[in-house]
Amino acid sequence: MHHASIRPAVIADAPGIARVHWDSHQATYVEPGRVARERVEAWTMADRVARWTANLAISNDVYPAPEGFHRMAIWVAVVDGQADGQIVGWANTSAGRDPDGPRDLELEGLYVLDAHHGTGVGQALLDAAIGDRPAYLWALADNPRAHAFYRRNGFVADGTRKFDDLWQITEVRFVR
Prior knowledge:
Number of helices: 5
Strand order of the largest sheet: 1-2-3-4-5-7-6
Strand content: 25-35%
Number of strands: 7
């Protein structure tokens, strides 16, 4: 059972979301040697905070999405009983970034700090973000833990793969 509350993200959550994003990228991509450290860290914390601030402003209707951005829905997992409301995970969805997406809903990201893996936080975020709706997502080809999580939630790899030139990784698409 998780000890976190799931809620829609607000603009003030941008630094916390950026921190989870950074720490998760380190743990999932850099430390296992899946992506070179310099590639991941080229997207600095300052850049991430700025990007998430803009994403959250758009998702909270502060202004419409300018070129290069799109509207998404964003949820955060916040540890219960902590005065500072530490964000330990987040999920975001959109109408899809792919022009030929197999569903009208894309789970663009779901990240949970390592210390909270296996606590139900990821499941609670997925439930809040997409419930039982049909959706698709992209996952790192070499991430068996994520693949197992998505399969438990009714997703299947549909055989579609893409290569990310920036990070030099292969991603696979899951659909339900």
